[in-house]
Amino acid sequence: MQHSPSMGRRQLLKAGGALGLAAAAAPLLTAPAQAETPRPGTTITDLGPAIEQFALMSGIRVGDTVYIGSRNLTPTRLIAFHLPTRKVVSQTDLGTGHSVQALAADPTGRYLYAGILTKADEGKPNLFRWDLTTPDKPAVGVGRTEDRDIRELAVAPDGTVYAVGGVPGKAPALWMYDPGTGAVTNLGIPDPKATLARAVAATDTTVFFGAGSILAGGDGASKASLYAYDRAAGTFTNVTPTEMEKDPSLRELAVFGDRLVVSTSGSTEPAKLAVMDLADLASYTVAPSDGKVVKNMTANGDLIYFATDSGLHSYSMANKAVAPLAFDGPDLGEIWGLDYADGALTVVSGYGFVGEIDIAAATSVITELGPAGAPVSPQTSMGIAADHRYVYVGGNNVIARHDLSTGKVVNLRAPGEAKDIEVLNGVLYTGQYSSQGMWTYNPSADEQPHQLAEFPSEQNRPLDVCYDAVNRLLLVGAQSDTEGGGSLWTYSPKTGKKSAFINPVDELQLVRAVASREGVAYLGGDNPTTQGPRGTVVAFDPVAGRELWRIDLPLDTGVAALAVHGGHLYGLTRKGGFFVVDLRIRRVIHTADHRAICPGFAAMVTSRGVVYGVSDTTLFRFDPKTFAVSTVVPQINGAWYSGAHLNADADGRLYTMRGHNLVRIDDRPVI
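and the corresponding structure tokens:
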């Protein structure tokens, strides 16, 4: 069930503005200097690497070898998986960025090009080339696009390389790399309202550019757009199929013979596949899929094979029909590579394996990349939750289960990303990105996690999970990447009843943080756009689905984390701002600037009568009487993928990351 925000908001906004003045007048506290060691009385237990796997984000077949790009590993690297021997036979480290999403081979099969993703512009190459005739020699950086991230690459028949991607806050351009001169050229921005480009294909005469708003949608951002770039004239022409214009983004492009194949990412509608005549782009067919994304296209004659979030499918250009591809084998999870050759499909799975599927026999051979020789190393982490028996850590396509009694770690498979997680009565619950809703895992009954509940697919990015013990509800704050705004999800583990309250803060603010007290949910808003309130706190009835009251905070960035202790709501912003709301009088009574120990995203938890916080750099706590901050563990420097996390078990022991390792912290504050 979906609900709109409650009425009477304008009056509440006025009240919030008045309350916000109290925050502006509150005194500021200066964060103390960090010590080199944990505070006395604090015990840190190192539980080893949080997640270890060969995580991947791209794959392409060249000859009899599949080349695979790593994801959220240090350093970034490429590996070569030899199909005849089913072994990893070579690898090369790139040494910059965090993931390799884009791979493309030149027409000769000699060179493999790789494009990387980075968290920030490192001033280093983001385009690399590996000479496959000398795989023992490392790949070299050959160029740098100013868009920071390269999401897709294409090589024209003459060897010219084209790249697309993006950088937050800027429309993506089409980039060209000339291997003869080594020059990287910006060919222009065809869609100034696009936020990200993930699709490019090239012929002798034309480059096709696909973009949209799969990230930073809403607020006037464009939907799916397809442009044809005339290589001779240097001009762009919009050739987007009408049927695709409502989809959030173009996902992938491929040229097969005299056809251009186009796919989208969907949100409110299923993703689509289009086949366009290169000689007449106005002549095309469009077919809907059964999934939220269509990608990884490959072809055999008039059959196009592709992946969705529900598995493999084929499209017949002859009869214009989509059909699922059945085979004897496991769930393929998130697919990052698909190629056809000699009656078989080669699949690169985000679960860390390569699948070889015999189409006629409907059989498969699965090879796990770790045992085959891929370097298994610690990965950056996401959600953390613990009980007396296990600690769970979310990652890419995996949830690591740490047994506290034996130290054994088991990697559980779950597609996408477990952004945040909670354990209730021994059962794990996750908020699963992207558009995966909630997943669950019961160690006493389940071999692997499975989906528990779906929520509106456009509400694709769950960010914070907490438990409302009064109403016995799981509460999840979420963001809509494609439409803007966000939602609050509720789920009853006892009855299975669920609700989704869309835009409970406003149409621009997502729900980044959720806390609960006496049956009231407190929602922390965050506004990624350039207009409107920066960080609103809303008190919300999660059963009735209605707003109770709100405070618009005088912030320049949105809320990052919330926690409740006694009658106070604690909050941190995305730039280290700290505030305390007295819930009885509904006023901000304290603010402080803690950027010195909390420079960015943060998380908070209440344990043993104290609110703790963790940032990328520091674990700290707040005095429950004065709200003064003190450092618990300095320079903790957790290896996080999308913001720091912190959780506590029933005994009050804290769990977070120090570097790539999971740590347990036993802190005994004197109150």
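(Above: one complete record from the training split.) Residues 156 and 497 are 52 Å apart (CA to CA).
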